[in-house]
Amino acid sequence: MNIFKSFINSVKTFATNTGTEKRRDRFTVKQIQLDELGEELNLVLEGKTDFNFIGITANGYDSLFFVRNDQNFNVEFRALKKIQLAYLKPLEEFASKHNIKFEKEKLDRIPYLRIRTNTSITETVDLAKRIQKEIFGNTDSTIYKVIP
Asked: Would you say 117 and 142 are in contact if contact means Cβ atoms under 8 Å apart?
């Protein structure tokens, strides 16, 4: 449970500091396109990240988190901002449409959706592309910030 609290605090800090990339002398956010997501997920599997997950966001409300599940990943979406609440239902419908199990939960009053994909890196990247395109309207050329 402590990892979830530290995760929430990290994301809250990130959300408040979305302009931090402008202060390059103090903090720079890593940016990727979805084709590079596999490399980032591999770092999670190799234990080369601070947590057993990473997240991506292009605009602050399309945040997806990829949580390690042994050698595979599950996808999570956390509604940290009011604008994000509207995306919970479409994500549930997406999971149901593709016969993927999901759980809705709340942690510290923050609703989140855990999509139990248990997918490989390749499958997770493909799923992330479909979700970003179908739910959030992003494209393959969208630039994402890696969080945390």
From this structure: no
Note the pLDDT tens digit of each residue in 38-74: 999 999 999 999 899 999 999 989 999 999 999 999 9
Coil, helix or strand at residue 12: helix
What b/e readout covers 72-92, taking b as 16+ CB neighbours within 10 angstroms? bbbbbbbbbeeebeebbeebe
The tokens for 145 are 């910030």
pTM value is 0.79
By the 8 A CB rule, do 10 and 110 touch? no
Non-local CB neighbours of 24 within 8 Å, separated by 6+ positions: none
Does 148 sit behind a cis peptide bond, omega within 30 degrees of 0 on the bond before it? yes
